[in-house]
Amino acid sequence: MLSIDNLHASVEDKTIIKGLNLEVKPGEVHAIMGPNGAGKSTLGYVLSGREGYEVNEGAATLNGKDLLDLEVEERAREGLFLAFQYPVEIPGVSNMEFLKESVNALREHRGEEPLTAAEFLKKAKAACKQVNLPLDFLKRGVNEGFSGGEKKRNEIMQMILLEPSLCILDESDSGLDVDALQVVADGVNSQRDGQRSFIVVTHYQRLLDYIKPDFVHILADGKIVKSGDASLALEVEKSGYAFLGKAYEEADA
Amino acid sequence: MSEQIEQALSKQYEAGFYSEIESDTFENGLDESIIRRISAMKNEPEWMLEWRLKAYHSWLEMEEPDWAHVDYPKVDYQAISYYSSPKSMKDKPKSLDEVDPELLDVYNKLGIPLHEQEMLAGVAVDAVFDSVSVVTTFREKLHEAGVIFCPISEAIQKYPELVKKYIGSVVPRTDNYFAALNSAVFTDGSFVYIPKGVRCPMELSTYFRINEQNTGQFERTLIVADEGSHVSYLEGCTAPQRDENQLHAAVVELVALDKANIKYSTVQNWYPGDENGKGGIYNFVTKRGICHNDAKISWTQVETGSAVTWKYPSCVLKGDNSVGEFYSVALTRGRQQADTGTKMIHLGKNTRSTIISKGISAGKSNNAYRGLVQMGPKSDGARNFTQCDSLLIGDQCGAHTFPYIESRNPSAIVEHEATTSKVSDEQLFLAQQRGLDAEKAVSMIVNGFCKEVFKELPMEFAVEAGKLLEISLEGSVG
Fold first, then answer.
1. Is B209 a domain residue?
2. Pfam families under this entry (chain B) (predicted)?
3. In 3-state terms, what secondary structure has residue A185?
């Protein structure tokens, strides 16, 4: 599925990722935790190809394809989905119009017929329902005037519709109350089918009570410094990142 | 991504081809004898010639305006030919079958096959090729309804009393430098008269095309909607590529008598010049309508072409309870410059006006909105709402807003809202992360931005406008 080998990446000449290795197999859920500034969000941006995020060394492949060689939209069409921490608004472009174009762009890439308006609407309505968004959200501009929680749920709705093979959730729990967190987690869990893989980036252990990870990695100073199972998250919850010692202090500085 | 912008914006103009049709063309230059010759070619009555000459003498006294936020080399008015007509049109074709196949081919290249249009949307087309109207269709159907839709030169012959009464009544000969020039030398354009209480049975459409090298294009359009009548008029244009700058100084006058309703829609896609701004059309247009009691005039424009645009479709709300509307999308890219907007002159009581302007700037272009809302002393209860939004693509373009508000009536209400935004990297990234390519993403964002205006366009025009924006924006990612 996803294979990251000795990845080094920088933003504006500042090296953020410093030799990261990660292997994600089909159906696995990997949680990435770590102190502020460790490079958690950067990893998602680098993998999805955001402009300004330079790869200086290393490799990353998704289903055998060299990710780093592809344009942003090509990576998406290969099945990479990034749920944004702060989704941006696109005024005047309805969610419906936007998602239909997206779904059909992905279908075209897979050599499938585009969905008709009626077929799409049916799927979209079901997805809306699943994340507890009223149907009129489909008609509203993309993220236009949505609350923080609505934006997060809208991201999960998109994930459900686009059926990616690898989902990267970038702090999808931040700013959510318990109920919204449950909705987001339920949406994610509903998409776990033994094939689809997830990288859950989070600052807090709380989300992992709802989305059970197979692996937990601690990212500090651009590297994975510790890996373990779900119990590692609980350990972090209890005693913080102090065990990281010097690496933590550097990252936090 | 700015490289992508550069690439996309350096794209060749799609309608840039030049067709070879023989033309009758006057030698360059302008003096009284040229005006006399134009008038004679058109077999005009004496009053029309006098009207032209008066305009010419006023023009000689006037100065070219320089207040607009545009910058272009001085036009040499003596280096322009003021008359050109396709030669094979001398014996005026009665139907499309008689039309020069090469001419029809030009339209086909532009994707506006007249044959199809005839059958399709029920649109009557008065196609203007350079300065002479060559094809007028659906004349009979309109005739049954009592609607007059013909070249203005024909109207001067056939309906002199109507033309004499209304020409220059909304845009006086001396209104401005370009209007005066147009009044002196206009060679053709359309005339529309909708009789009392008649709802025009179809949308009226004129496609303009400037084709002859180095000829000025001076269209004159006059639309008179008599009491209680309705008409929707579509104007669309595109021009082939060339090196010399071409001057276009059109005048459009609309008269909406009591309870009449005129909707005037424009899609403008003239050659904008090459990447250095060389060779594009100068579009200096005066468009104005007058509303009598309870009448309504609605201007909708989608402006994507021309090197320099100077254009302010306006409404004089003279009658009580009359309504003026202006919906505009102006897109500039490359080195294009646009200074466009509207004037809403509220004279009558309870007059209302709405202005929705969407400016999109890309490349190294400059896009200015200039609008005047004037509330006269007798405009009790008048209202205006203005919304003026600018969208920037890339970091080398400019958006400017020059709103003027003058209120001489304490009961009048004027609202002005303005925003400036950018197609942001975040928006593009979001769309691309969802599998859309950058071009599609930009076109979607821009279409979303223009939505309020597009919904005012007649259906077939809205589709065309969307397509036009897409073509104009291909790859303009920033």
1. yes
2. SUFBD_core, SufBD_N
3. helix
- Distance between CA atoms of residues B264 and B257, nearest Å: 15
Q: Which residues of B112-128 are buried (b: 16+ CB within 10 A; e: fewer)?
A: bbbeebbeebebbbbbb
**Touching check for B450 and chain A: CB below 8 Å?**
yes
Residue B92 lies in a domain: yes
Return the pLDDT at B414: 96
Asked if A241 is an interface residue toward chain B (Cβ–Cβ < 8 A), one would say no
Task: Give burial (CB, 10 Å; 0-12/13-18/19+) of B161.
Answer: exposed
Reported ipTM: the value is 0.93
Q: Which amino acid is at A113?
A: E
CATH code for the domain in which residue A149 is found: 3.40.50.300
What range does the domain containing A235 cover? 2-252
Task: Return d(Cα B450, Cα B301) in angstroms, integer.
Answer: 11
Q: What pLDDT is stored for residue A109 in this prediction?
A: 94
> Which of B395, B427, B432 has the highest number of chain A CBs within 10 A, making it the mutation to test binding with A?
B432
Give the residue from B211, B218, B250, B249 showing the smallest Cα distance to B109: B211
Question: What is the pTM assigned to this prediction?
Answer: 0.79
Phi, psi of B418 (to 5 degrees): -140, 140
Which pLDDT band, with edges at 50, 70 and 90, does B298 fall under? very high
- Strand, coil or helix: what is B441? helix
How many domains in chain B? Answer: 1
- Cβ–Cβ gap B433/A141 under 8 Å: no
**CA–CA distance, B95 with B134 (Å, rounded to integer):** 9
Contact B434 A141 (CB under 8 A): no
- What is the domain count for chain A? 1
AA identity, residue A48: S
Q: Does A145 touch chain B (CB under 8 A)?
A: no
**By CB neighbour count within 10 A (0-12 exposed, 13-18 middle, 19+ buried), where does B421 fall?**
middle
Residue B478 lies in a domain: no
Looking at residue B135, its amino acid is V
Q: Give the residue numbers spanning the domain of B150.
A: 2-473
Q: Which residues contact A224 (CB under 8 A, 6 or more apart)?
A: A20, A21, A22, A32, A217, A218
Contact status of B427 with chain A (Cβ, < 8 Å): yes
Q: Is residue B284 one of the residues assigned to a domain?
A: yes
